[in-house]
Design a protein that fits this description.
Strand content: 5-15%
Distance between the termini: 44 Å
Number of helices: 24
CATH superfamily of the largest domain: DNA Methylphosphotriester Repair Domain
Helix content: 40-55%
Number of domains: 4
CATH topology of the largest domain: DNA Methylphosphotriester Repair Domain
Radius of gyration: 23 Å
Largest sheet: 5 strands, antiparallel
Strand order of the largest sheet: 5-9-8-7-6
């Protein structure tokens, strides 16, 4: 396998720089363990006693065990998997989504249009481990973030796997084994992010696009009410809660084994999100973690992006105002595409009204007051025309796209390259380049897409006398590569409020 730059990695290790956590693993031959670069060990090992690996799986394959002190498998993921579109990055995105566990290595290779042998050879050469080892490592990484009860299904793969990868002690393993008889499928996990993390901005984007009845927003006073339930009856008077920015969201997320009622909240004390979910099957926990990480863009190297964009005089004040901005990802690719088409050429409030009417008409909550699931492509294809209103061409595009998604004629997954996803979408009648780029940015986390025809982006550039036409905006954006998507977000955020509300 290719060796990482030993000198560069060693300098990061010596500085205990947490920004490199997740980007490489430190293997220490003197102790037989592997650590994250920021491990709070009291002494830095000698250069000749360490080896650097691209993944925790590679370190494990080399015979090392995980450090109990720093938890090297609980760090944010490698940002390269979103930045790159090569075979390795696409494979890693699918592995993190649980494809190997559901379809095996052969199924993963089929999705990537190559043989299992070739895929294994490429991953071993670049990452030091094959797809099966990488999938097992991801399973162990997810387990590290779970409560002991939720480990029951994950432990079925064997005691050795978790001893080697997670450094679980005997008591933890016994707790997990004892929990195997429980039928509870509610899990809680903490997903970390790199500093700086504009979690509030990502949550506000979700709030701005939330559909009444489908997504329930959680505010500070809601969390306070929940914490105060156990103290009820103490007679203390409480003030009426003031309006506040959302700190969480609750909604259904469709996972491979079934829908999961999921709640995601921010923690003001540390970067990342707290997740609780009621799963259809415990085996979905890895896919859930990967989906939430992509939804909130937790793995990106925000410090490096901010540093790059701050070199531009136009963006410098915007980055200073909002450090750590994140791409608002997708909880469900098909849903994101259909909601985007519904919002074309109308205001955001009008789009939300249309989407809410559709969900209420086609939805079927389990009990009164329960959250609705956004309609599936099949439901929209069969009955969407009964409730959708607007130009006939747009309604036809929604129905045709839903039918293509339902039949498999149009497939959206994180294993696609940006170019492949754009090409598939623009082939669909009624879907243009703006929609294709917007969906690629949110579904794949593509970091280098500037929506140069977007009205809000153009307005933001015009008020700064930077560009007046889409062509000028596209030319200007070349200097922001490879982070044009993040520049796009800053321009959206900086637009006058009256125009910002039009962002789909």
């Amino acid at each position: 396998m290719p060796v990482l730059d030993h000198d560069r990695c060693y300098r990061a290790l010596a500085s205990r720089d947490a920004r490199f956590d997740g980007q490489f693993i430190v293997g220490m031959y003197s102790t037989g363990i592997y650590c994250r670069p920021s491990c709070p060990a009291t002494t830095t090992p000698q250069p000749h006693n360490v080896q650097f690996y691209s993944t925790a799986a590679a370190a494990h394959e080399a015979g090392l065990r995980a450090c109990k002190r720093c938890g090297p498998v609980t760090v944010p993921g490698n940002p390269d998997w979103n930045l790159r579109d090569d075979l390795t990055a696409r494979a890693m995105r699918l592995i993190l989504d649980g494809v190997v566990e559901r379809e095996g290595v052969t199924g993963l290779a089929n999705r990537l249009s190559c043989s299992a042998r070739h895929l294994t050879r490429v991953l071993v050469a670049e990452l030091g481990a094959g797809p099966l080892a990488l999938a097992r490592a991801h399973r162990a990484e997810t387990a590290r973030a779970l409560t002991p009860l939720a480990l029951r299904a994950l432990v079925r793969n064997g005691r050795r796997e978790f001893n080697g990868r997670r450094a679980l002690d005997g008591a933890e393993l016994e707790k997990a084994q004892d929990a195997n008889d429980s039928s509870d499928t509610t899990v809680a996990l903490w997903l970390t992010a790199r500093d700086p993390f504009d979690g509030a901005g990502a949550m506000q984007f979700i709030a701005d696009h939330a559909i009444t009845g489908v997504e329930r927003l959680i505010n500070d006073h809601d969390a306070e009410d929940e914490r105060a339930e156990e103290d009820a009856g103490n007679g203390a008077a409480r003030k009426a809660p003031a309006a506040s920015a959302p700190i969480g969201v609750e909604r259904w997320i469709t996972l491979p084994q079934g829908p999961a009622l999921t709640r995601v909240t921010l923690d003001p004390q540390r970067p990342g999100v707290q997740v609780s979910a009621r799963l259809a099957a415990i085996d979905d926990v890895g896919a859930l973690a990967a989906r939430i990480r992509r939804w909130f863009d937790l793995d990106t190297d925000a410090a490096a992006i901010d540093a790059a964009l701050s070199r531009d005089p136009l963006l410098r004040p915007l980055v200073a105002r909002t450090p750590g901005i994140r791409i608002p990802g997708s909880a469900d690719p098909a849903e994101t595409l259909l909601r985007t088409i519904m919002g074309q050429q109308i205001s955001l409030p009008a789009a939300r009204t249309m989407q809410g009417r559709l969900a209420a008409y086609l939805g079927d909550p389990a009990d009164p007051g329960a959250l609705l699931r956004f309609p599936t492509p099949t439901q929209i294809a069969q009955r969407g025309a009964e409730v959708l209103r607007g130009p006939e061409r747009r309604v036809r595009t929604i129905i045709d796209t839903a039918e293509a998604l339902a039949t498999g004629a149009l497939v959206l997954d994180v294993g696609l390259t940006t170019a492949e996803l754009r090409e598939r979408l623009v082939r669909m009648p009624g879907i243009g380049p703006w929609t294709a780029d917007y969906v690629a940015m949110r579904v794949l986390g593509s970091p280098d897409l500037l929506l140069h025809t977007d009205l809000v982006v153009l307005r933001s550039l015009r008020v700064r006398d930077a560009a007046a036409t889409p062509r000028e905006a596209a030319e200007l954006g070349k200097r922001w590569a490879p982070w044009r998507s993040y520049a796009n977000l800053h321009l959206w955020r900086a637009a006058p409020p009256a125009h910002r509300a039009r962002t789909v």
